Structures are given as C-alpha cells and as structure tokens.
C-alpha cells in the first residue's frame, strides 16, 4: 500500500522566514509557495533525496493547525505516506482498525489527493496518506 515517505510536515508561523535556514543554511532548493484552499494554508516543499520537507503556515484564526501552532509554537506535525490509490488505502486502513479523520479524500498541494488518520491510531503521530497528481 505505502510506496514511500512523501514528506515530513513542519508547522510554521511565517513561511518566508522559516524558509531562510533551509535555503541559506542547508542549501536546499524549494518549490514555489502555494495556497491550499481546502486547508486554508500556505505550503512550500523542500526536496531532499527521495522525500521532502513541507513547511505549512496556517492562515486565519481558527482550525486544528492554528491551534497546534498556538499550543506548540510550531514544529513537526505529520508524516505523509505516498500511496498509489488513495481510496483503496483509506478503505484498507479503516478496515484494519485505523481511525481515519478523512474517509473521503481532499485536495492537497500540487494537485495531490490526501486523507489524514487520527493521531491516536499511531501513538500520537499524525499520518497523512497522499496520492500525487498523475
């Protein structure tokens, strides 16, 4: 079902400021900053080998990611697992007892399709299933 780790997401309060140490300090390239309407966030991806770091800036004043940012000041939020068929992956996960936050996939960054599992299913780690755009 899982092909690879697609990305590791970090929640930040200022995406432009957060990019600086990754680009200047580590020399990482980045994608363009993108607005993802379905989550009301700005995101940018920094490729490293076969995976990526995703910086996520929540917008607005409410929502799960805004609350995460307020509670923690930002930091590691989730690990995204790449799958070939998001609907099949959701069904398989749910039928095995994993509590899915999203039983219906939602639009993600770069025209991907995504679904999140509840953190309780993975000992406090948020897992995202992501099917990249074809």
TrEMBL record:
Family matches, as CDD domains: MMCE
Q: Does the keyword Metal-binding apply?
A: yes
**Ranges for the VOC domain?**
4-132
List keywords of the entry alphabetically: Metal-binding
Q: Which domain of life is it from?
A: Bacteria
The processes (GO biological process) annotated in the record are: L-methylmalonyl-CoA metabolic process
Q: Give the matching InterPro entries.
A: Glyas_Bleomycin-R_OHBP_Dase, MeMalonyl-CoA_epimerase, MMCE/EMCE_epimerase, VOC_core
Q: Name one GO molecular function term.
A: metal ion binding
Q: Which family does it belong to?
A: Belongs to the methylmalonyl-CoA epimerase family.
The name of this protein is Methylmalonyl-CoA epimerase
């Amino acid at each position: 079902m899982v092909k690879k780790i697609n990305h590791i997401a970090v929640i930040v309060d200022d995406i432009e400021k957060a990019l600086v140490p990754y680009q200047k300090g580590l020399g990482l390239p980045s994608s363009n900053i993108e607005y993802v309407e379905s989550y009301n966030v700005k995101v940018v991806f920094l490729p490293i080998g076969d995976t990526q770091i995703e910086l996520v800036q929540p917008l607005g004043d409410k929502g799960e990611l805004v609350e995460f940012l307020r509670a923690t000041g930002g930091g590691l939020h989730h690990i995204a697992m790449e799958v070939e068929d998001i609907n099949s992956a959701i069904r398989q996960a749910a039928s095995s007892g994993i509590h899915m936050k999203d039983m219906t996939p939602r639009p993600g960054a770069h025209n991907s399709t995504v679904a999140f599992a509840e953190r309780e299913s993975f000992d406090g780690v948020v897992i995202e299933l992501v099917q990249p755009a074809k």
